[in-house]
Each structure stands twice: as C-alpha cells, then as structure tokens.
Amino acid sequence: MNAFKPLVFSGVQPTGNLHLGNYLGAIRKFVALQEDNDCIYCVVDMHAITAQLVHSDLKAQTRSIAAAFIASGIDPVKHIVFNQSAVPQHAELAWVFNCVARIGWMERMTQFKDKSGKNAEQVSLGLLAYPSLMAADILVYRATHVPVGDDQKQHLELARDIAQKFNIDFGDHIRKAGLGLDITVGDEPVHAYFPMVEPLIGGPAPRVMSLKDGTKKMSKSDPSDLSRINLMDDVDAISKKIKKAKTDPDALPSEVEGLKGRAEAENLVGIYAALSDKTKADVLAEFGGQQFSAFKPALVDLAVNVLAPINNEMRRLLDDVSHIDAILKDGGERAGAIAQKTMDEVRDIIGFLR
Ligand code: TRP
C-alpha cells in the first residue's frame, strides 16, 4: 500500500536529438498521464554532464527537449516543466543519497557497467553516482509514479532501495520530527518519509526499433541517420527514411502471429499502430496481404500527419527562445518551492541546523 499522494515525475536527458522512439515510448506516455495525474517533467541537464562534461550547446539541447514536451501536448501551466539545474535541491538531496547508498549498489548497475566498460577507474564519479541523482530527482518531490523505458527499471529499484534505507535508518528521527506516513513495503510496516516509487513501463510502443535493423533499438547514437526519424525531421526526410526502411520481400500477414521472425515488418506495423492509436491486429486487418510498396506510403502519410504539427510547433517555439525560457523559469520556481519544503524536512530529520 502506498499512502503517498500520487504524483508523476519523469526526466529526459538533453543529449542528442529526440526521435520517434522517444516520442512513442516516453513523451506520448507523459502526455497521456496528465489527464488523471499531477505531473512534473524535467529536462535533466545535470545528468547530461555525467558521461561527457563539455557540450557545445547544452542550452539549445535543453530548450529543444522542453519544446518537444510542449509541442507534443504537455501543459506547462497545469503541470510542471523545468530543467533540473534550476532547482539546486536535486543536487542537495543527491548528496544525502550518496551517503545513504552503498558503492556496491552503484557498481552493480548494468548501465554503469556498459558505459564504463573496462574504463571503470577513469569515468567520472558523477557517472557512478548517476542513479543517486536520479533518485533525488524523483524523491525531492516525493513522487510516486515514474514513466520510463525498461532500461531504467534497475535505476528505479535502486531509488526504492535508497528510500527504504533512508526510511529505516532515520525511522526514529522521522517520527520525532512528526513527519512521514505508515506504509507497508512487502509485508513489513514502515514509517516512511519517502514513498516507494513505482515504474510505469510499457504502453503502446515501448520499443521502437531501428529502420535499418529491426532487432536493434532506434537510437540517437546509431551512426546512420536513416535508422531513425528525428522529431525535427521535415516532411521530405520522414518520407525518405520510411521509403528506405529495411523490409522483407513478403506481403504483410493478416494476423499478428505472422509477424514472428519478421523484425522489420513487425517494427513498421508497430509504429503504424502506435501512431494511429490502434493495435497491430487492427493494422493487419486493414493491410494484411498488401505489399510494403502499398503500406509504406500509408505509413508516410500517417507519420507526417502526426509529426509535422509537432515539428512545426517545435520550430516556432525554438525560433524565439524567450517563451521557452519563461516556461522553464516558471516551472523551476514552482518545482523549487516543493523541493525546498522537502529539503527543510530532510534537514530536520538528519539533524542539520537551519
Ligand atoms: N536516467 C533517465 C534516462 O536516461 C533520465 C532520468 C534522470 C530520469 N532522472 C530521472 C527518468 C528521473 C525518470 C525519473 O532515461
């Protein structure tokens, strides 16, 4: 049982261009969650310097993610959109969490192992502590639900471990300060200051694959730009990339089972389904038996219909950055007010004079 007030939080790093996989896998989910939840969406610029310290245009990248959020339909007035570094309480809580978490927890993260490789002694300390900052992002708002890709599941489990250890180690202090709530974790009753966050994984298109290889995820780091559709691609680029997308020589099947072993066909059908809010079965009921030469133009039309308005709105927003900057500033102030209340309480719990 989680008695904390439901609150959605998620973050996107301002590194590289957003593509269709980010849009269908994450941003569309963020948009949908706004209907029934309070949501905080953050451009995590402090995470962007963990793997690579110097970026040629971090400000532009940050604005571009914020513009993508807003152009896709996130409402920055009803909800909160801001950049992480504007709210220094994230870093402040991350320091506390650095002292809660154990080094071994961090070294076990598969993303850390992948990114550091044989070089684990040479990567930044920030890369190792990355999940601790991520836990702070979420818990400084005491957020309860976090929409993420499945690659972030392990980091969210770590956020739960940090919350759990903080709640238990400071249990007496939390009570003495008159803070916290009684919850159960598994079967154990715990007096908790921080909630146990729940990942929200999945959705209509959790995994959009490369247009050049249906077994690889669509990725901003793929050297071939033809492998992905970027949110900033214009109509010609979208159309060219879909026309050049890898396929096989067969017609589309009429049933979903017929997509087995046909990774590229499955990916294109999945993209069509997600963009049109249909199931793959619906799409195959319509296109089963047809060749890719007929299906691809339909997919181009659909993709352009959905993406061109977002693309135009992003361009409009990025044309005059004062509007985006004002939105981020306002979001940062509203987020900061919530975060400051948490940090005041955390200071009391720990015993920092204030
Ligand atoms: N690590 C996440 C990613 O790379 C980004 C992120 C940072 C995040 N802080 C977060 C996601 C907090 C969810 C909640 O995708």
From TrEMBL:
Keywords: Aminoacyl-tRNA synthetase, ATP-binding, Cytoplasm, Ligase, Nucleotide-binding, Protein biosynthesis. ATP binds at residues 13-15, 21-22, 149-151, 208, 217-221. Pfam families: tRNA-synt_1b (PF00579). L-tryptophan binds at residue 137. Gene3D superfamilies: HUPs, Tyrosyl-Transfer RNA Synthetase. Homodimer. GO terms for cellular component: cytosol. A motif ('HIGH' region) lies at residues 14-22. A motif ('KMSKS' region) lies at residues 217-221. The keyword Mitochondrion does not apply. This is Tryptophan--tRNA ligase. It is found in: Cytoplasm. SUPFAM superfamilies: Nucleotidylyl transferase. InterPro entries: aa-tRNA-synth_I_CS, aa-tRNA-synth_Ic, Rossmann-like_a/b/a_fold, Trp-tRNA-ligase, Trp-tRNA-ligase_bac-type, Trp-tRNA_synthetase. The keyword ATP-binding applies.
